[in-house]
Amino acid sequence: MDDLDRMFRRLVQNIRNGHSEYLSRPFEVAELYQHLIPYRLNRRELGIETNQDYESALCQLLAGERGYLTGDQDMQDTIRRELAGPNPNTAIFREFAASRVALAAAAVQHANEMPPAVVDYNKRLFAFVACAGHGLKLSTSNRLRFGAHFVATVFHKLREQSSATHPRITSCER
After folding, report:
1. Rounded to an integer, what distance in angstroms lies between the CA atom of residue 6 and that of residue 3?
2. Rounded to an integer, what distance in angstroms lies between the CA atom of residue 127 and that of residue 139?
3. What are residue 71's DSSP bridge partners?
4. Degrees (nearest 5) of the Cα angle 5, 25, 33?
5. Cα–Cα distance between 162 and 171 in angstroms, integer?
6. 107, 131: one domain
7. How remote is the C-alpha of 6 from its chain's centroid?
8. CB-based contacts of 171: which residues, under 8 Å, 6+ apart?
């Protein structure tokens, strides 16, 4: 699952949770990036590190890649051409803020069948194991950085699987 798949899955999830009318009718592109999946509120769930990566995935989505969204053909062609260039302007989607797009029905069904989103947690896991292996509690800021649920899940798995290997792992605040 790549950035585009995670973005579409998150979009469908957010639409179902608050804007179910968009499952069956078009909405403006501006609604997409301002309210449905804004970068600042969804970057952790999307597993996207930079705004440019977010914009690139959003452009792919708006260009109609994988048939996730349908929309104005001129918009999709323009975005595809821009993405194919050597130095693409990933903010080009803002030029089409008033254009309307819709979820493809088959793609919504596909989103239901996608495996749960997997974010690359290698760095987080390494840092957590390093702390836990030395019997350290993670501070509130680190729990927020790593994600409290992630930290608690890894802690409990480590404790269950290797209490003999890591005898100093004693607590993990949630």
Report:
1. 5
2. 13
3. 101
4. 50
5. 14
6. no
7. 5
8. 137
Predicted pLDDT of residue 105: 84
Strands 69-71 and 27-28: unpaired
The verdict on 147 and 92 lying in the same domain is: no
pLDDT at res. 47: 87
Sheet holding 69-71, edge to edge: 27-28, 100-103, 69-71
Sequential DSSP letters for 43-84 = HHHHT--SHHHHHHHHHHHHTTGGG-EEE-HHHHHHHHHHHH
| Residues 64 and 148 both lie in one domain | no
Run means of pLDDT, 10 residues per run, the chain, 174 residues: 88 88 92 93 87 93 93 94 92 94 84 53 50 52 55 64 51 47
φ/ψ (deg, to 5) at 130:
-60, -45
Q: Is residue 173, in this structure, part of any structural domain at all?
A: no
